[in-house]
Amino acid sequence: MQYRSCASFFGFPLPFDLENAPFTKEEWQQLTERAESMSSGFAEGDYIMDRIDTWLLESYSLHGICEVEKGDIVLDCGTYSGNTTLYFANKTGSTGHVYGFEPHPEIFTRYSKNVAQLKNCTQIRAAIAATSGTVCFSNEITPGSHIVKNGIEVQSLSLNDFICWNKVNIPPAKAGGFDNS
């Protein structure tokens, strides 16, 4: 989390240069080398930091407190390349399911290709927001794109609406956009 917070404010400082960093420069180099040697099961267009953060450090797990397990349902809000969706789909197994939300049209296309083989994943082209409707989204094709005042218009979906929609057994969203008709 420290890395993610600093990345947003300072433009991706190296994790070992951060105050109270959990890794030395040498340990970080070892993690980087391990991530670079990983050759399959990852999303095309991912970053080494994605592999380190998600797969090696498992930053989406609070071990012993909150961990994704077989049969769980996961909402991946802001999927980018799909690495986290692939990770969660692996963790939930065939009895679980991952709903991946990605509003940016170009990023959604890449994401859809990267997770197309998953049987336990539903791809939804929508931004998670306070209300369902439309919002302006940054046109950047980078991790961390977000809702802005002026940008491309995308469909938005509140988590409350999604959960209510999902509970009444309406078929999953169509790839390419949210459809609750």
Topology:
Elements lengths: L1 H9 L14 H13 L10 H9 L16 E5 L5 H10 L4 E5 L3 H11 L5 E4 L2 E2 L4 E5 L14 E6 L1 H9 L14
Parallel strand pairs: 1-2, 2-3, 4-6
Antiparallel strand pairs: 5-6
Helix pairs in contact: 2-3
Q: Could you describe the 3D structure shown?
A:
By secondary structure, this protein is of the alpha/beta class. It folds into 2 domains: 2-56, no CATH class; 73-167. The protein contains 6 helices and 6 strands; from the N terminus they run αααβαβαββββα. It has helices spanning 2-10, 25-37, 48-56, 83-92, 105-115, 159-167, and strands at residues 73-77, 97-101, 121-124, 127-128, 133-137, 152-157. The strands form 2 sheets. Strands 1-2-3 form a 3-stranded parallel sheet, with helices on one face. The longest helix has 13 residues, at 25-37. Residues 1-6 have low confidence and may be disordered.
Give a brief description:
This protein has 181 residues and is an alpha/beta fold.
Based on helices, strands and strand pairing, what is the structural class? Answer: alpha/beta
Q: Strand content of the residues, in percent?
A: 5-15%
Low-confidence stretches: 1-6
Cα-atom Rg, whole angstroms?
17 Å
What's the total helix number? 6
Mean pLDDT: 80
Overall shape: globular
Helix coverage percent: 25-40%
Oligomerization? single chain
Biggest sheet, strands in spatial order? 1-2-3
Total number of beta strands: 6
- What's the N-to-C terminus distance? 38 Å
> Strand count, sense and closure of the main sheet?
3 strands, parallel
Query: What is the H/E order?
Result: HHHEHEHEEEEH
Question: How many separate structural domains?
Answer: 2
